[in-house]
């Protein structure tokens, strides 16, 4: 069992420092060439791997050009274009409706505020944060996906269970200049080492400061269950 640093700000800073060294090229893995493509890719990524999304959007972004195209296409046709994506019927509806609102209310441009983005169908705070950070260079929060949630809990950075509650806690302890990168670092670490089912604690650069380290720890703080 690792021993977390106190206070939590010190733990968070050490986590960032070590992961920056471990993953120096960490960045968003979704592929896109415009703000609209980014928005659509992030909507599609809910409960779906980025790899699958990138495979699907490769042909999607060739077929559709601009919000008007998505707004005007028959929803069933759009759903068929997305049929290898989880919940593709619902996501087709989100994309079509959101693009119609972008055309009608934002002159065809993806909005650049949290309030306006979260008014779009299928866009919550997590999606809006990604679009703001990578589409508009506006960083006003931390994207809390499943990797960030799991690893933050395992490291003792938060005891909250919902992303909406985890984000403000992380914003209090993670240096604001690292808010954007923090997400990508934890995603990379979650994919490479700190996996959901069988984390490789023996080869983890954070093991000595992780209270969930399964060499001696009895409990996975992310699930609350015994190893």
Structure summarized in a few sentences:
With 227 residues, the chain is mostly helical. The chain contains eleven helices and two strands.
Defining traits:
single chain; 227 residues; mainly alpha; Endonuclease III, domain 1; 2 domains; elongated; 4Fe-4S; hydrolase
Structural notes for this entry:
The protein is mostly helical and 227 residues long. It has two domains: 8-26 and 143-226, Endonuclease Iii, domain 2 (Orthogonal Bundle); 35-135, Hypothetical protein, domain 2 (Endonuclease III, domain 1, Orthogonal Bundle). The protein is 53% helix and 2% strand. It has eleven helices and two strands; from the N terminus they run H-H-H-H-H-H-H-H-H-H-H-E-E. Strands 1-2 form a two-stranded antiparallel sheet. The longest helix is centred in the middle third of the chain and has 19 residues, at 88-106. Its EC number is 4.2.99.18. Residues 44-192 form the HhH-GPD domain. [4Fe-4S] cluster binds at residues 194, 201, 204, 210. It is an enzyme of class 4 (lyase).
Write the SSE topology.
Layout: H1 8-22, H2 35-44, H3 50-63, H4 67-72, H5 75-81, H6 88-106, H7 114-117, H8 125-135, H9 146-154, H10 163-173, H11 179-192, E1 219-220, E2 225-226
Antiparallel strand pairs: 1-2
Helix pairs in contact: 2-8, 5-6, 9-11
